[in-house]
Specification:
This protein has 420 residues and is of the alpha/beta class. It has 2 domains: 7-245, ANL, N-terminal domain (Rossmann fold), CATH 3.40.50.12780; 323-412, GMP Synthetase, Chain A, domain 3. It is 30% helix and 24% strand. It is built from 11 helices and 19 strands. The chain has helices at residues 10-19, 24-43, 46-52, 72-82, 106-122, 142-147, 164-174, 183-193, 214-224, 334-341, 371-385, and strands at residues 88-91, 101-104, 131-134, 155-158, 178-181, 204-208, 228-233, 238-242, 248-250, 255-260, 273-279, 290-299, 311-318, 323-324, 330-331, 346-355, 358-365, 390-395, 410-412. The strands form 4 sheets. Strands 4-3-5-6-7-8-9-13-12-11-10 form an 11-stranded mixed beta sheet, with helices on both faces. A 4-stranded mixed beta sheet has the order 18-17-16-19, with helices on one face. Strand 14 (323-324) and strand 15 form a beta hairpin. Helix 1 (10-19) packs across helix 5 (106-122), helix 8 (183-193) runs parallel beside helix 9 and helix 10 (334-341) packs antiparallel against helix 11 (371-385).
Length: 420
């Protein structure tokens, strides 16, 4: 099978540029039409046929069982039994500790490429604009073909595994108009870039792959004089993106997103819950009510930009980065992280919840923490997690990245405790 190329997505992009401003009723009708086809495609796969026992109706959709990450291997095996021909595939980074492989058909890839192009073009980017991509994307993957296409004449690439001093020097030589990288990589880069002044031509920073903290946005404004336009994507699908007004627009033509509580019940706007993804264009290996491992909330209202796509508010990121307390409450560790980041002397750090009663701060520094500084950080942590938490400190030589070059600033080893 010929791999899906960037130009293949052109007609889909043109349709997306129109549908993003459709009346809500017309957009909802398109979603229902695509959802119906997704359910028909899924019902032909033994995995779903055994799970559902019968072909579901559209009005039964929210009663369908949630698909956990652990079930993806069974779904993949089931798809391969009924489809033996060549397909496109990609593997997730496994940042949740459970890597998975996904198969895609051409309609899904065209829709995904088109949605990404809509995000970039809306932010003012063009294929010829001088752009620095500091990322890690393996050769031969769908995203690798997308970003390394010869059509992107203005793009230059550098691996996130490159030393930060070398990254900063490379950026100063290139003087890009756009910079795309992971938030954690950007955070570390700012320390180097702040020493030598702003990048003269930089217009916008593009981010994805991790949660963008408000503290990082402020530092980028102060240090580089530009804003961040984030996108919310994954191996499975391209979920949402920020327009110049700062709102996160859901790619409603490409995916159907649900925000649900622990019992799978839909939550209203403003309530943080688990993200369920249903792909609307992948008829080879459709994902139906798939728990992607993230937490987020919908936002009410309409974006000032005039797009009518559904809006996300807060995106809390991977479940692995949310801490679970003994009471069952989930808390985001970013309030702790923001405080720790302002401490002097840390080159790198990672907050690890090893149990509901124990938390460790791993850090890279030229010298160990003193007693007074340790006590201050311990108070910061217990103010958020509770006084019953035992806080330990571990000075290390380095903190490893994930296989795709991400720094996991916060890791919870109990985030999935009690979950199937």
């Amino acid at each position: 099978m010929r791999a899906t190329g960037v130009l293949d997505a052109g007609p889909d992009l043109m349709r997306l540029m129109r549908s993003q401003r459709w009346p809500a009723e017309r957009l909802s009708s398109l979603q229902r039409e695509r959802l119906a086809r997704t359910l028909r495609s899924a019902a032909r796969i033994p995995f779903y046929a055994d799970l559902w026992r019968r072909d579901p109706r559209l009005d039964e959709f929210q009663a369908l069982p949630v698909i956990r990450r652990a079930a993806v291997a069974d779904l993949l095996s089931s798809v391969r039994r009924v489809h033996s021909g060549p397909v496109e595939s990609d593997r997730s980074s496994g940042s949740t500790g459970m890597p998975a492989e996904f198969l895609f058909d051409r309609s899904h890839q065209r829709g995904r490429f088109a949605a990404r192009a809509r995000y970039l073009l809306t932010c003012g980017w063009t294929p010829w604009t001088r752009t620095a991509w500091i990322i890690y994307i393996p050769e031969g993957t769908p995203d690798g073909r997308l970003v390394r296409s010869r059509l992107f004449g203005g793009s230059r690439f550098l691996s996130t595994f490159t030393h930060f001093d070398e990254q900063a020097a490379w950026l100063r030589r290139l003087d890009p108009v756009f910079l795309y990288t992971l938030p954690s990589n950007l955070d570390a880069l700012l320390h180097r870039l702040e020493e030598g002044g702003r990048l003269r031509s930089l217009h916008l920073v593009l981010c994805g792959g991790e949660v963008v903290e408000e503290a990082l946005r402020r530092r980028v404004r102060e240090s580089l004089g530009v804003e961040i336009a984030d996108n919310y994507g994954s191996t499975e699908a391209f979920l949402a993106w920020q327009c110049p007004q700062g709102c996160y627009h859901v790619n409603a033509e490409h995916v159907l997103l649900e925000i649900v509580d622990e019992d799978g019940i839909s939550l209203p706007p403003g309530r943080l819950g688990r993200v369920l993804v249903t792909t609307l264009e992948n008829h080879l290996m459709p994902l139906v009510r798939y728990e992607i491992g993230d937490w987020a909330e919908f936002s009410a209202g309409v974006c000032p930009c005039g797009r009518t796509l559904p809006l996300l508010g807060r995106i809390a990121g991977r479940s692995v980065a949310l801490f679970r307390l003994r009471s069952g409450r989930l808390v985001t560790p970013y309030e702790i992280i923001v405080r720790i980041k302002h401490r002097q002397g840390f080159k790198q750090f990672q907050l690890v919840q090893s149990s509901m009663e124990r938390c460790a701060l791993r850090y890279v520094a030229e010298k160990p923490l003193g007693d007074a500084e340790s006590d201050r950080i311990r108070r910061d942590i217990t103010e958020v997690l509770g006084t019953g938490i035992l806080v330990e400190f571990e000075r290390v030589d380095r903190i490893a990245r994930t296989p795709t070059g991400k720094f996991m600033t916060a890791v919870s080893e109990v985030a999935f405790e009690g979950r199937a």
